[in-house]
Design goal:
With about 150 residues, the protein is mostly helical. The chain contains four helices and no strands. It has one domain. Helix 1 (about 1-30) runs antiparallel to helix 2 and helix 2 runs antiparallel to helix 3. It starts with a helix and ends with a helix.
Amino acid sequence: MFGLMLFLHFAGLAAWFGALLAAAVTLSVGGKQAGSPELRAAGVRLIRVFQGIGHTGAVALLVSGVVMIISMDLGKNKPLWLEVMEKGGGTVILLALVVLGMMGSRLMKRLAEGRQSGVRPSRYVAAVSVFLVLIASVMLVVSIKI
């Protein structure tokens, strides 16, 4: 059971991190030419697909992490890296789901309506980039096991 949860944990992390990274790179490159209807439609599809993959990966990461921590049954004797992964990682996941979900749906709505003002996805790309740095920070602390 623990092995399956560990696999889901790493698969969820890869899907989430990869979807966020791909969305940030693709939107930053294509965001400069957001005026054409084809690019706006592609932007809506891109955000929808990457949010679907990313949110699914984040939920899998969160659920598998909770199951693994409960099954370890360490009580209050957890090392610092496990505390960071549990509290910091869980907080980053929940914040990312809420913030990026709201910002992504707002951006998709603006792109679908074809508004010319405020359509640039730079704020969304900046928020995605912040979450990528936070995810990488948690991964660094966990991987060096402080």
